[in-house]
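Bit of a strange request maybe. I'm writing a small parser for structure token strings and I need a real example to test against, not something I typed by hand. Could someone generate the tokens for this chain?
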Amino acid sequence: MSFGLPFHRLTAIAASTAIAISCATAPPAAPGPDLPLPRMSVPLSGPLRLLVLGDTGKGTADQHRVLEAARATCTAAGGCHLGLLLGDNLYPNGLDDEDDPRFASLVEVPYGSLGFPFLAVLGNHDYGAPVPLTFCGGLGLEERRAQAQIARSHRSVVQIPDRVWRVRVGDVELIGLDTQSLFFHDTPALAGALGLRDDARQQDELLRRWNAEPRPRFRIALGHHPFRSAGPHGDAGSFEGIPLAGLLFSGAAIRQFLEERVIGHFDLYLAGHDHGMQDAGDARGTALFVSGGGAEHKPHPARNPVPFAAESLGFLLIDVEGTSARVRIYGVPDDGAAVARVIHERVVAH
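Reply from user aminoacidic:
Good idea to test on real output. This should exercise your parser:
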């Protein structure tokens, strides 16, 4: 089973992106014959500005309002350079196949219209479920739907380089994770039947290797499932209020992976899954944020106290410069206006 980009292609993607940053007037070198990344127009000085949205792909009026509020916010800030989608890009059941037109209508057309490229990771709804369980796409059972979305994205300004990917933007390293491949790892027989056991092992090995390399000035990991959350899904290891490690749906394997390979190794971990906006504090020097308000918000039962949580539509704007990042949480009100305001912010320093 193919998993992750071959190392030479990952290295080439990182190199080409760095060229686009450091020499914006010259065309970047192509990262390979089959996956050129969209060019990023980034100034030679000042911060790298990231727009971060999660749980977007519903095709609703709220998704459109958040999009338009993000467009206005980026314009007012002097422009955004790169967008990040945190999974559940396509509700309710991922793509039927690579030619499914919903990728264009729910992902490519809306976010491509912002005028800068996007990188994305996969969520449970992107994996979907096979017939006759398609009404339960949130189970995240069908690997072929995830692969179809990846393949389709390679022809888009919104790209998922692979299930696990690494991109270097100047001094900023971005690593996209496939947390859904870990979701059933608590029950090895089921993970094996779904074809995910080797995926989890190889993802772990990639992160172990990358963490051992010389550290860039700022590191950001993004995945779909949060490490800590005050929302209805809750923390990894006790998702849905299920506290027993190793029990199906608890996310114990996700928690173990994040504790070993992400927490303490990255400056920021960004996730969605819970539909709202959160600053979930820090864990061993890694700042945790949840941006799941891209198309919907839900009540937050506050299973865990976090520094900030809002039952709100919204997005993050992150300015990374040197060894620090200014993270702003923007809320979009429910009154029908496509506007956003800062509802929380803090500076994360390496």
